[in-house]
Amino acid sequence: MAIRQVTVPWIRGYDFGVGADLASGSPMGMAVAGAATPVENAQGGAVDIQVQRIHSTEELEHALGIDAEASYGCASFGAGIGGRFSFAKNSKIQVSSLFMSITVQLELEFHSIDDPALSPGAAEVIGRPDVFTTRYGNMFVRGIGRGGLFVGVLRVDTTSSKESTDIAAELGGSYGLFSADLDGKFKDVMTKYHNEIFVQMYHEGGPINLNITNPGDPLELLNNANLFLQSFSATPEKFARPYFVTLAPISIARGPQPPNTAQLEHAQDVLVYCAKRRSALLDQLNLLDFITDNPARFNVSKDPSPSALTEAAQNFQADLDIIAECASLAINDPANATMPAEFATIKHTTFPKGALPNPMPEAKSSAATVPMPDFHTCTTWAACCQLAESKGLKLIRKYQGDTIEAFRVIDFYPPKDAPVTPGVLVTIVCPPIKSIGSPSEKAVGTLVAKHLIARTKNG
């Protein structure tokens, strides 16, 4: 079977005709000449908007355009992963929390090389396969898609997959979660289940000033997704950037066939397998980390013991290390690429080692709660912090209004007297502060940085 065309994220160094190595995706020399043109009478853009519940890291990677099958493993390791894989990994997908995503992909006019031919430099060494491959690789950038990609993820920490499903049902499913009339209902449901909420956002292209001001408001993700899409309406060229490319075999440009096609195909099969196993292993490791980091939500004093959880996590990490080494071998030495189990044998170890303990820690049926105190009584931020500390709560400040005035609590949520678990994140709404830089304000910044998980990446 001939090497097939693959779709991978755009990275620095990719341009029309640039050569690339299939295994690593690394850009190489200018291998192909030829004019890049659009498809005739196809100048319109394409928009794909998806709102969905995410159940696994693999599903999020698919939304981010780093699907192992589509890229033949090329975007899963080495040069193709970059910020997208880091975003997927840092989202920490696992079955004991509820994850919802908003994805916007906007593609403008697609350009590709219709009649590719070797560049003069590449043609000079066509009879020297070793030199040719070293300089120009075995693929080349045939097409480039311009536009933008936006992905927002909302994480609601729960105690079980059943609770996640119950919350999703009460909120009306994934589309209901981001509806404009959800605000009050969302707060009620979060208070009922004593959950913490975190948001993350990643985008390539679009405006650079999209931000998250309230980590507990899912509508901010929806608003940013709409702002991202609207930015392309008036001046698309201003906000567009390359975000995916098609890599085609260099042989279609009348270049040489790779001397080791069968080995390359096997190496790509290894990379695809490694990418899928890595995603599954991350889900399991994330679950163990979540249980370990949230002992108040689970009965971790019974079987399995905390040490058993730690040992299981270490075994999953060992499996991830084997996956990484195995993939590295497939990229750097395709002729000797092997599947992880065989690779582990060569390294005098075993794969897989990781397994979830059986039984897993049970979620506590009713976590101890405290009534939400009345923060309206606080006349300073320090007083708010003292009151929160006495109840075991965490704080984040949200500013409201344009007038700078003395500190006062305008609002806070969850509301007064609501039953909350110790450690829950409380949002204090207050006017803009008078000054920045005082020791108290620096302490606030540290507090926010510690407890707010809100990440923005601009393309």
Number of helices: 15
Mean pLDDT: 82
Instruction: Report helical residue fraction.
Output: 25-40%
The termini sit apart by 37 Å
Q: Measured on Cα atoms, how large is the radius of gyration?
A: 26 Å
- Report the strand count: 18
**Helix and strand composition category:** alpha+beta
Low-confidence stretches: 435-459
Return the domain count: 3
* Backbone shape: flat
What is the makeup of the main sheet? 9 strands, mixed
Q: How would you explain this protein's 3D organization?
A:
It is flat, with a radius of gyration of 26 Å. Residues 435-459 have low confidence and may be disordered. Helices cover 37% and strands 21% of the residues. The strands form five sheets. Strands 1, 5, 6, 7, 8, 10, 11, 12 and 18 form a nine-stranded mixed sheet that branches. The protein is of the alpha+beta class and 459 residues long. It has helices at 57-63, 68-71, 82-90, 120-124, 129-136, 161-170, 173-177, 183-193, 219-234, 236-239, 261-293, 306-332, 340-346, 381-391, 439-451; strands at residues 6-9, 18-20, 27-30, 32-33, 36-38, 46-53, 97-107, 111-113, 117-118, 139-157, 196-204, 241-249, 370-371, 394-399, 411-413, 419-420, 425-430, 456-457. A hairpin with a 6-residue loop joins strand 2 (18-20) and strand 3 (27-30). The chain has three domains: 6-253, no CATH class; 261-346; 370-453, Trypsin Inhibitor V, Chain A (2-Layer Sandwich). This is PASTA domain-containing protein.
